[in-house]
Amino acid sequence: MAKLNMVEAIDQALQQEMQSDPSVIILGEDVGRDGGVFRVTDGLIQRYGEDRVIDTPLAESGIVGMAIGMAIAGYRPVAEIQFAGFAYPAYDQLVSHASRMRNRSRGGVHGAARVRMPYGGGIRALEHHSESMEAVYAHVPGLKVVVPADPYDAKGLLVAAVRDPDPVIFLEPARIYRAIKMEVPEEPYVVPLGKARVVRPGRDVTLIAWGAQLRVMREAAERLAAEAGTEAEIVDVRTLSPFDFETVVESVKKTGRAVVVHEAPRSCGFGAEISAQIMERALLYLKAPVARITGADTIPPLAKLEDYYQPDAPRVVQAVKDTMEF
Q1: 129 catalytic, yes or no?
Q2: Number of separate domains in the chain
């Protein structure tokens, strides 16, 4: 079993799905000859040709609109947006058409485009390159929203997304594209959408995160165990829509405390929804209010201030200590 980083795992998933299903089409800016801005689609055009790996103009609305049309025609398009912050021109296509096509046609057709995009900060990038707007998409009925946290899940979740009958927003944390290597099976496999996982069992507090923040949680949990003897349970949500509230709530019922971490802005971030659901479903089990560690309610800053914006292990550790002392 080979050790792959996330870029390699996603590329492998795309290659295998294209090989097994001729209706899978890749499209986006520079996905062909250049292999994508992060080289995620490297080698696909050489293997499958320009008819199935399509370099598009710089027009996000056109890319997603074309993918929706392909899906209606029976193809399984996988569109790439170079960075999540560039996707806003395509938001109308996603909300007005992709998410509604099945309901509009009463099940006659669907607009099941799969849209991949690097997202999040931590790469010292320019404006519009570090957006974390997952809650915007999770709020849209009809869209599924997926965020892998490691190479194994990236491959399995992407295979599931390509095969899914609904439109899927697949957000790839750019800061961990090449930061993690792990064993990934060569053969295709599916990690089900809508199912969270308990990454680290614990008894004292539940830490909830997705994407790149899972690494922050792991570091925080190790520090808490070493410094205070606090055993944190970590839940990787994997999919924001549909969301596996059962796994989260069961963990919180066991520990009695919860800390949610995301790098998106705090107000109306998805952590607020998780907090509300925990309050509604597990209030009598809570020993302290649900805590949130998030980005600020501001535009993601440029490189010099990025570390002040991003959640980190010390902030999580302090939040857990405050929660334990409540």
Answers
A1: yes
A2: 2
98-140 pLDDT, tens per residue? 999 999 999 888 889 999 999 998 888 888 889 999 999 999 9
The residue whose two tokens read 């055009």 is: 45
- Does residue 76 share a domain with residue 209? no
The pLDDT of residue 111: 85
Domain boundary among 184, 209, 239: 184
- 254 Cβ neighbours under 8 A, 6+ residues apart: 203, 206, 233
Helix (H, G, I), strand (E, B) or coil at 29: coil
Which amino acid type is present at position 45? I
Token pair in block for residue 217: 């949680």
From the candidates 97, 110, 129, 262, give the one annotated as an active-site residue. 129
Exposed/middle/buried for residue 106 (C-beta within 10 Å: 0-12, 13-18, 19+): exposed
Q: For the chain, give the number of residues.
A: 326
Q: Return the pLDDT at 127.
A: 87
Average pLDDT score, the chain: 96
User: Rounded distance, CA 134 to CA 268, Å?
Assistant: 11
How much is the average pLDDT of 278-290? 97
Q: In terms of domains, do 179 and 204 share one?
A: no
Q: Which of 96, 24, 28 is nearest to 60 (CA)?
A: 28
Closest CA to 299 of 82, 116, 85: 85
Q: Is residue 81 included in any domain, yes or no? A: yes
Q: Helices (H), strands (E): how many in the chain?
A: 12, 14
Q: What is the pTM of this model?
A: 0.96
Contact call for residues 23 and 75 (beta carbons, < 8 A):
yes
Query: What's the pLDDT at 128?
Result: 87
